[in-house]
Amino acid sequence: MLQYSLRRILGMIPMLILISFVVFSLAKMMPGDPFGGEINPSNTDPKYIEEMRDKLGYNDPIYVQYWNWVKGVAQGDLGKSTTHKLPTLDIILERMPNTIFLALTSLLITYVFAFILGMYAGRKPYTLADNFIAGYNYFALAVPSFIAGIVGIYLFSFQLGWFPFSGSVEVGLKEGSWEFIQSRIHHVILPALILGLMSTAQYTQFLRNDIIENSRKDFVRTARAKGTKESKIYNVHILRNSMIPLITFLGFDLVTIISGSIITETIFTYPGIGKLFVDSVATRDYSVMMSLTMLFSILTLVGNLVADLLYGVADPRIRLD
What we know:
globular; mainly alpha; transport; MetI-like fold; ABC transporter permease; MetI-like
């Protein structure tokens, strides 16, 4: 497994080089730049705009700009945000805790509901309850997350007043205090519920179908013939084999933990990595936009590797050489 991991990591290097070239090219092909008046109306002095473009190297040849950017990233220098006037790395690290908190909360909701609904539907297929769960799955898969977010804000924030509709914490609270922690939890519940419950559908459907398929296999018939309790058959034998398809999602969830939900964070104006990415695209903040895109790409590759390694952990019959 160690040799396999090393080969995969070495194989990521040319992939990352190609991704960096694509990310840089797409960013530079966007119309305008951070200093254009059409992006930032306060930048209307042509002399100032030209000075800033020269200072940041925007007038250099493309290959020179690309090399300077790659060299800086390799040295841990992600550049400076033209919008926030701060180092890009500091801005990302400042937003990351909010996104991790939102992602972990939504993942917990997703897995809890998926296992409950998937196990029940798999053990009692084609019943009224199974059809109801299937109807919910189809509904969750069909409804866009931004629609669910808007409806959730309207019902639970504006009409019922149960949850706040924006931000990550109430202004004026002392960081680390019990009131601060309560406010953080209160602010994250609604976006996490929207994100988690809408993601539950695909997990539930995969688990349900795999449980039904595995319940018809020979090892289950053998366990029943030996007098094994039905609960043990489902909770140990069948569940262990049915979890393997979900491991693929678990690997890609590594990306979700960092990137969060771009749409959900934007709708709830939740100050995380997702909203930061949308804002950087709108303001042509190249250093932030390219750094986040590279971060998402790296985590996607790492997520693939983690998913492959977890296959061997979940099922000893799978060997990675």
